[in-house]
Amino acid sequence: MAFILYSLLQAALLVVNAIAVLHEERFLRRIGWGTDQGIGGFGEDPGIKGQLMNLIRSVRTVMRVPLIGVNTVTIVLLLLFG
Which one of 5, 47, 53, 65 is most buried, by most CB atoms within 10 A? Predict the structure, then answer.
């Protein structure tokens, strides 16, 4: 059970790392998800695209420093316990 939980946490960490390294000019703007694309006006509910753009921007902003620590702990655990 512990191995499955650790594998799930490691997979979630990899997904958050993948979101955190997305570069806006190189990748997101090419597929039409840059900051210059309108996500709606005032008072309108943002669509799925707008919500995903906000999620990506939030993860990149908030999780940058904690990811360094979590990645370091994960690497040390992998080196110690294989």
Answer: 53
Structure tokens at 75: 């690497």
Task: Describe the chain by its helix, strand, coil percentages, rounded to 5.
Answer: 70, 0, 30
Q: From CA 71, how far away is CA 76, in angstroms rounded?
A: 9
CA 70 to chain centre: 14
User: What contacts 49, CB < 8 A, 6 or more positions away?
Assistant: 33, 39
Task: Copy the structure tokens of residue 70.
Answer: 């979590």
CA distances from 35 to 5, 19, 22, 32, 61 (A): 36, 16, 13, 9, 14
CB atoms within 10 A of CB 11: 10
pLDDT tens, position by position, 7-30: 899 899 999 999 888 777 777 777
